[in-house]
Amino acid sequence: MSGRISLPTNQGMLFVFSEVGNRGFWMRNMSFPIDIVWINKDKVVVGVNSDVDPSSYPNMFFPPSPIRYVLELNAGYANKNGIVASTTLTFVI
Length: 93
Description:
Largest sheet: 4 strands, antiparallel
Helix content: under 10%
Shape: globular
Number of strands: 4
């Protein structure tokens, strides 16, 4: 989401990787805080970094275990909607 000014309410950006791994994310060129949701190959949340602020750059954020998907959401969305480790998500790619 680098370079974007905002993210519309109730929307996110889903990153889909061809292989499971430990991908690092950072807040380079970000203008607003986000939640980073780490999702394994079975679409189960393995961790959430909440309210990650742009000022954290150049720090990198990593999942607690290997993932296949990452969902970036507006800060606070995960908590407000009960998205926590062990939550199973449903989405079609």
